[in-house]
Specification:
heterodimer, A: about 425 residues, 12 helices, about 5% strand, B: about 170 residues, Alpha-Beta Plaits
Chain lengths: ~425, ~170
């Protein structure tokens, strides 16, 4: 092995450890954040006992789950019962490895370690563990593997509620995967590439570069499908407490239950990172160009910006969770198949035609002008979707069909 | 219709789902910064807005006279009126003919904290107390004897007064 290859491997292993640790810490603390936000929205204080301000709560939770007894139900299929949480966790933790979380870092070293020999690295290293040419196709593929864990876990538990939860999860994730895939086609049309670094690079051109402007409806569909993919409220039907006990993880205890929880939160982190990378310019700092120059200072600045953007979406996930009630199952399916999939398909056509018009007859080639024009084209679409299509598509309470009952006279005393 | 049925004012056909969602999210966002109503219980037991009611009926207390003897004259009214049958009283009499309780025990597990014993007591000896922290390590410790009842120091309950129903 050449010193360059060894250097590359060393850097990759360090990055792998770094990203894994970072995601796990983020997941641990997002459980705390979730409980805090739940409390604040309900005018409570939230966890504040373990450590200063409750900051050691995730560690206490983890320790508790490690020390608890693991129950494997006697009627369960033991192999699948044990494998299922591992599949979920693995799928959820693989995706952050492909996402660029900062500008490339300048890294030059030439060191000789005892026993291992000489390591050499020249030039900049991308802030991703794996720079995949297939980009978000890989993400779509791996996120579909996650549903195997849930379905297997539900089936192997030998419990009807678990099974129902698993089946619901499968149906839901398969449906919304289609919508999510359709919402990503316009990105491919506009950028011309599926790899994440290319998508981020394409969004660095000017203040209009972020794809959330020219592809606003795509961003909306992606966000809502992301909620459904990560089984969060209002789409958390696989674990609907009121009807399914706890859904697919009813029979799980201790660390296996924790693994499912970590997988859920990790997929939330993943969807946030994906949204930031695909539609919000990734690590791009808006309205500046110095962030494209390279350098160490830039690396840290962009990493912080990416973190802040991701954190905002984590907050959004929790904010929505403690605001909205859960969908009914037929409403969930109707929304997926009858609204988002046709809408996504129509939007693909719309963007394709729009791009053809802008680039062909109008002859606009500058990326900033192109996305500006597309944004203008988008405005009537947004008005159509959110004002006209949305009207009357409300989820009716039982009393809305009748006129309000006339106030009855107070009973004579 | 019975008295005061609440009729929900649901939105009519005006509201759309997206707009309703955004309205709801604005509402919850405002709540993020509201003053919190949590009372940090073991540290703070009352706030400006909440104190325990003086009519609270908790574990009992036996009042004593100036010589430190219990005021109880063992008349037997409280075990008679007690709906839960939780008071055990064995009366005794001294040389001067004064009655006093030889044994006076209240099983706080059986007690339903109705406060009838305090209401019926002619000597104002037995009271229910304004007290709620009663944890013990053994079940047996919940049978309070006369000594323990007399040793309690918490305030006694001022029961509901029909002449003054709102406690003014």
């Amino acid at each position: 092995m050449t010193p360059e290859m060894k250097g590359f491997m060393l850097v990759s292993v360090v990055k792998l450890a770094l990203v894994f640790t970072f995601v796990m810490i983020l997941v641990a603390y997002s459980t705390l954040l979730e409980r805090w936000i739940a409390a604040w929205i309900q005018d409570r204080i939230g966890p504040n006992r373990a450590g200063p301000k409750g900051l050691l709560q995730p560690i206490a939770d983890g320790l508790k789950n490690l020390l608890k007894e693991e129950v494997i139900p006697s009627g369960s299929n033991k192999v699948f019962f044990v494998i299922a949480p591992a599949i979920s966790l693995m799928a959820a933790l693989l995706i952050p490895l492909t996402i660029p979380w900062a500008a490339p870092m300048p890294l030059d070293f030439d060191l000789t370690l005892p026993l291992l020999g000489r390591f050499v690295h020249r030039g900049a290293t991308p802030a991703t563990v794996a720079v995949l040419p297939i980009g978000f196709l890989f993400v779509l593929a791996i996120s579909s593997v996650g549903v195997y864990g849930i379905a297997l876990g539900g089936w192997a538990s030998n419990n009807k509620y678990s099974l129902l939860g698993g089946i619901r999860a499968t149906a839901q994730m398969v449906s919304y995967e289609v919508a999510m895939g359709l919402s990503l086609i316009p990105v491919l049309l506009l950028v011309g590439n599926v790899s994440f670094p290319q998508i981020v690079q394409a969004q660095q051109q000017g203040p209009l570069g972020w794809l959330v402007l020219p592809l606003a409806l795509s961003a909306f569909i992606f966000l809502v499908s992301g909620f459904a993919e990560s089984n969060r409220v209002p789409f958390d039907l696989p674990e609907a407490e009121s009807e399914l006990v706890a859904g697919y993880h009813t029979e799980y205890s201790a660390m296996k239950f924790s693994a499912f929880m970590i997988a859920e939160f990790a997929s939330m982190v993943t969807i946030s990172m994906m949204f930031v990378t695909l539609f919000l310019g990734g690590w791009d700092i808006p309205f500046t160009h110095w962030d494209e120059a390279g350098g160490m200072r830039l690396f840290w600045a962009t990493a912080v910006v990416f973190f802040v953007k991701t954190l905002f979406f984590l907050f959004l996930f929790m904010w929505v969770r403690w605001t909205l009630p859960r969908f009914r199952y037929d409403q969930l399916m109707a929304l997926g198949w009858k609204v988002f999939i046709p809408m996504g398909l129509a939007y693909v056509m719309f963007i394709a035609v729009g791009l053809w018009v802008v680039e062909g007859p109008l002859g606009v080639t500058s990326p900033a002008a192109r996305s500006g024009l597309l944004f203008l084209l988008n405005l009537p679409v947004l008005v159509f979707v959110f004002r006209i299509l949305d009207r009357g598509r409300l989820i009716r309470g039982s009393s809305t069909h009748r006129p309000p009952a006339a106030p009855r006279p107070a009973r004579a005393a | 219709m019975a008295i005061g049925v609440k009729v929900m004012q649901r939105p009519g056909n005006e509201a759309s789902y997206v707009r309703a969602t955004l309205t709801g999210m604005a509402l919850t966002f405002r709540h993020l910064f509201r003053r919190k109503i949590t009372m940090q219980y073991p540290e703070e037991k009352s706030t400006e807005t909440w104190t325990i009611s003086p009519r609270w009926r908790g574990t009992h207390r036996m009042l004593t006279d100036e010589q430190g003897r219990s005021k109880c004259v063992a008349c037997g009214l409280c075990p008679q009126v007690c709906p839960a049958n939780c008071i055990k009283l064995v009366p005794g009499e001294d040389e001067e003919g004064n009655r006093y309780p030889l044994i006076y025990e209240i099983d706080e597990f059986r007690c339903v904290f109705c406060g009838y014993c305090q209401e019926v007591c002619p000597e104002e000896a037995i009271h229910v107390g304004v007290h709620y922290e009663n944890a013990e390590y053994e079940r047996g410790r919940f049978v309070y004897d006369l000594e323990r009842l007399s040793a309690q120091t918490h305030p006694v309950s001022s029961l509901w007064d029909p002449m003054d129903p709102k406690g003014e």
